[in-house]
Amino acid sequence: MKLIYPDFLWALSCISIPIIIHLFNFRKFKKVFFTNVRFLKEVKEETQSKSRIKHLLVLLCRIAALAMLVLAFAQPYIPMGKSGMVSDKNKIISVYIDNSFSMDARSNSDNLIEDAKRKAKEIAGIAKQSDRFQLLSNDFEGHHQRIISRDEFLQKIDEIKSSASVKSVSEVLSRQQEALFSPEAGEGEKISYLISDFQKSNTDILAIKSDSALQVHFIPLSPQKRNNLYIDSVWFDSPIVQQNIAQICHVKMVNDADQDIENQPVKLIINGIQKGLASISIKARQSAESAISFTITETGWQSGEISITDYPVVFDDRYFFSFEVAKNLQVLSMNGEGESSNLNALFGKDAYFSFQNIPLGRIDYSSFSQFQL
């Protein structure tokens, strides 16, 4: 057996304190004068014998408590050979914290990303001061590739925030291997920890290439409830949105929960201004559609947004889109024998369409990009 901090053994000298108390504190005698002790002699001897045993047990307990406390600070461990699992070599530990939006889901105590941070700190807490670390998240930033000290590792854990980036398990493990087996890492036991909710879409376990030189530990986290309402898709009734003409925007939403949702408000926002409001009710584990009417008064490119409020997973509560409202639509008709009266009637009488006829013999192919039809 070896000790990580053998200097703490000097504290074993404190064992002398309960011994000194035992030797001197219990040797105080007090004379008691009594007329006749003949009837008390037998009781007195029996009481002294029991008292002596009791004080001796108290002394042993005190000595054992102090010795165990000192050994706990000295941190004893059993080193083993090549065939054993315990080694006195320093470790290089890579910890991946999944900071994707799905980790914002609620757990029993907090959200999952905060639970992941606590798990990472616990891993550092049981490591030696001389062990080195790599901290990795979905952002894959340059400083994530560095091997750092335990104190710096603990500091950087608190800097991790939720991110839109998502990486597969195989990508994360590959990045960990690059750092752990780099010349900067040097010699030592290589250990990998992956802390995540392991979404099905990015948990590609079968794509992982095993390496006997690397210990891999998966630490799964589960939310308290997997309830979520999200926007699936958005589309218009017409492929062409015209100025000052009422349009219909359709919204498809999915209720990924075990409870029905009643009268969920849905907002339509165009260029930062709310243009419409609707409510939608969805059965548990089903989808539903809602229609919102709106009118655009300006031409040009428009920035749209469908917005709902659904706690705690909020990253999928806003759906962004854009569309163009043109002043007119350029239409070119290439005619053989003559102009089409039907096309002239369809496009020529509507001011929105800029309709142009051209014979086949005068086609300018370079001008095609100016026309939408």
Can you walk through the features of this model?
The protein is of the alpha/beta class. It is built from six helices and 16 strands. A five-stranded mixed beta sheet has the order 5-4-3-6-7, with helices on both faces. The chain has a four-stranded antiparallel beta sheet with strand order 11-10-13-14, with no helix packed on it. It has a three-stranded antiparallel beta sheet with strand order 8-9-12, with no helix packed on it. Helix 1 runs antiparallel to helix 2 (41-74) and helix 3 (112-125) packs antiparallel against helix 4. The longest helix has 34 residues, at 41-74. The model is unreliable at 80-87 (pLDDT under 50).
Notable traits:
16 strands; 4-stranded antiparallel β-sheet; alpha/beta; single chain
Mean model confidence by pLDDT:
86
Q: Helix share of residues?
A: 10-25%
Assess the beta-strand content as a share of residues: 25-35%
DSSP summary: helix tally: 6
Whole-angstrom Rg: 38 Å
Low-confidence stretches: 80-87
Strands in their spatial order, largest beta sheet: 5-4-3-6-7
- Helix-strand category: alpha/beta
Question: Can you write the helix and strand succession as a string?
Answer: EHHEEHEEHHEEEEEEEEEEHE
